[in-house]
Amino acid sequence: MPDDVCYARSARDEIDGLVYFPRMLDKIRLMAANKLHPDLHQNLGKGMDQWTCQFFGIQYESLKQEVLSGATDEEILSWAKTQGVTRSEYELSWFNAYLKTRGFRDDLSDRLAERKKEQPHTNREDILTFMDYIEVDEGREL
């Protein structure tokens, strides 16, 4: 694998109080530059990417075009807010909690358990959510 191939930013990174959004933008940019780690190719536009776009009421492909136009993270967030659904502070809090806890005693718990068993370094009791899993799988600390 080439030295310049890498994972995206942490799923816990935030912009304007919103988790995950910077990571999604990072994945789009890295993919376009042919630098995104192959482990992340399959789920582009799916999972947390899709849920984040649904939260804003925008299409992933439209967001991707905006990212590839060269806009900054802040400009893209502003674009997403104006193109889609206006969300209140409590909806933002709810959505952050939703993303941060996916896999913990919910409909994705079994899938998280399966994913944890795929690699020895992720088969840990302290990985309770998909955000935890992403951090450990990509070599970051919990």
Mean of residue pLDDT values: 96
Return the string of H and E elements.
Answer: EEHHHHHHH
Q: What portion of residues is helical?
A: 40-55%
Globally, the shape reads globular
Summarize this structure as a short list of keywords or feature phrases.
51% helix, 2 strands, mainly alpha, 142 residues, globular, 2 domains, 7 helices, 3% strand
Description:
The protein has 142 residues and is mostly helical. The protein has two domains: 1-87, no CATH class; 102-142, no CATH class. It is built from seven helices and two strands. It has helices at 21-32, 48-56, 60-68, 73-83, 89-101, 109-118, 130-137, and strands at residues 14-15, 18-19. Strands 1-2 form a two-stranded antiparallel ribbon. Strand 1 and strand 2 form a beta hairpin. 25% of the residues are buried.
Briefly characterize the structure.
This protein is mainly α and 142 residues long. It has 7 helices and 2 strands; from the N terminus they run ββααααααα. The two termini are 26 Å apart.
Blueprint of the fold:
Blueprint: E1 14-15, E2 18-19, H1 21-32, H2 48-56, H3 60-68, H4 73-83, H5 89-101, H6 109-118, H7 130-137
Antiparallel strand pairs: 1-2
